[in-house]
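name: query_chain
kind: protein
chains: 1
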Amino acid sequence: MNRYFFLLMISLYANHSSYAQEIKIVRLKQQKLITRPADYWFDAVKDDRRDTSDIGSVRAGIFSKKMTRINLPDGTAGGIHEFLRDNLVQDTLYALPLALHISRFEVVEQTGGLHAESEVYMTLSFFTGNNKLVEYSINSSVSAGVDAFKYIEGLIRQNLDTIFYQFDKWFLRNRNDVLASIRGPAILVNTVFGKGIADTGMIVYSPKTRLKLDDFEGKPDNYLPAAAATYSGIDLKYDSETRYGQTRLTVTITSLFDKARSWCKANSRNEETLQHEQRHFDITAVKACELAEAIRAWSFKPEGYIKEIDQLYKQKQAETERMQDQYDDETKHGQVAAMQDKWNTLVREMLAKQSCYYQR
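structure:
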């Protein structure tokens, strides 16, 4: 029993010694990188590869046929982090902290006779928190004798120099967007009021443009007791762009009058009827302004902002219809002069409180 235990310890020791010799360490030369970042620094390097035990294998030694696994000191992430700390000039006090993620770091050697082609592949991504900013892939190679190990270190530094130089140029171009995506909300909303439309059958609301009787081009419905009918509504369009984890949302709101559907009976084509119908269009404009305010005040969720915009739109659409009905009911479609005067004043006051049209 004692002899067996002794032999077992010998075996484990021998295997451990063999394993320790399998990986050869590539020590990067302490040489400053070209890049001098002004607005960012790297507080973390993360190795996202499935196998992080090494970076590949090469034949090391003259006339050697044995492939030797290689790695950086303290592992790939640790080795790169230490190298950047010592050889990349960084402002760690005021600059933006970034994380460098390694998704590929591989040394591949193709051999034939006494010659070998060694290649170093790298794919590095630059992150702010969980948001990937940009990713770069690069490879470089060298043709050498069977002992390519001494060239690998230079290829690694060459790749790092190239990637960091490219990223620095990219960051300078996109700095403001990156900082906004980190420091600002996930959804940035801008509301715009439409000033024109390709459809000539529509009139876009403006406080400077009043409806005319000639704008009522539709065929009158003689079965209805009303003198005229105004078809107006709120058109809403939106587009979005997502960059670096932040969505820029532009919502365009347009108050429209449909000339082809709006009508006025021949015996009612007078100023009183026109003013009553103008108030209908004004009410639509007021509700369009309120919709813009509701959108600006809403805290949108990145995963559901489209649905939330639609809900706000439908809510304001329902409010508009109720107010239009109330207006017609109380004025009896403009036939009760006192109530018409009251609504004229009310709608003008509501418009005066809205800034969306008078900022043009």
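note: The chain has a mean pLDDT of 86.
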